[in-house]
Specification:
131 residues
Length: 131
């Protein structure tokens, strides 16, 4: 008994995606530190009328901050300059994890759709005779 071209194509695609899934999933299983939020440089005025920051936007006080939410409320935390590179790496780890996790979900959804096609294409009615 031959399978339909649609079943065959789904079988091949599911096999390829299964191999690709392992490649995408493997880095997610390594131990990494994540820092959820956005790191950016904040430039502010201190409010002192004689300070240089009051006269020029270029002279504003600069600091790096982490912006994140807790229970729906926005929070900001000043980043210690000595740890800025480390925090950037942690934030990049979190972004990469979320990107790969999304890709895993998409691949898994496609594999499940292909498996549904394969199941429907191979299902037989026991009351009907084979041709």
């Amino acid at each position: 008994m031959r399978s339909s071209p649609k079943v065959s194509a789904s079988r091949q695609r599911a096999g390829r995606l299964g191999k690709d899934l392992r490649r995408v999933l493997q880095p997610l299983l390594r131990h990494q530190v994540f820092l959820r939020g956005t790191l950016y440089e904040l430039r502010t005025r201190c409010g002192k009328p004689t300070c240089a920051c009051a006269a020029s936007d270029e002279k504003r006080h600069r600091r790096w901050v982490l912006s994140y939410t807790v229970e729906g409320k926005k929070r900001m935390r000043v980043v210690p300059l000595a740890r800025l590179a480390e925090w950037r790496r942690w934030a990049a780890n979190a972004r990469e994890f979320r990107t790969r996790r999304t890709r895993v979900a998409e691949m898994t959804r496609q594999i499940l759709e292909d498996l549904d096609i394969i199941e429907r294409g191979q299902r037989r009615d026991p009351d009907k005779r084979a041709p």
